[in-house]
Amino acid sequence: MAHADRTAGERRRAGPPRQDGPVNDELPVIIHTDGGCTPNPGPGGWGALLRQGDHVREMFGGEPTSTTNNRMELTAPIMALEALTRPVIVHLHTDSTYVRSGITQWVAGWERNGWRTAAKQPVKNVDLWQRLQAACERHDVEWFWVKGHSGVADNELADELATKGMLEAMTSAV
Q1: Residue 19 forms part of a structural domain
Q2: Residues in contact with 85: Cβ distance below 8 Å, sequence separation at least 6, in sequence order
Q3: Which domain of life is it from (predicted)?
Q4: What is the pLDDT of residues 54-84, one digit of tens each?
């Protein structure tokens, strides 16, 4: 079940919807994402399941060379959000506290600090954080944390898609 406390469900964009923003009378797009590597670092994959009403889309991909779990966890929501053809309301579910906390709590401070952490170190995966930030700006995104491998069907499917993405990337690299 989705963890729906105020932090988990925090909206990425503050303020009123933009004039070209989501239409509020339509069903939200429900997205479940996952990513990972074997080993970490190593070849990796990402998966995303998008649902709006009766419409379902499965997406996956991967990196055949060395990447990290965090990069794949970030890539999944980026690819899902970028695949949406118009601004919509999105409920995005991830089992990565790194992704959810990063986009809802940390990214604004990193940007203010010139993409440096509170310890004055460069932010890891800054290219993906910037891309995720841009993808979120187009939509009204609410983030939810889901416990991984806990029987949530769409999260389990996102995990299977990530594994499929990794295996296909490894196979195509041979």
Answers
A1: no
A2: none
A3: Bacteria
A4: 999 999 999 999 999 999 999 999 999 999 9
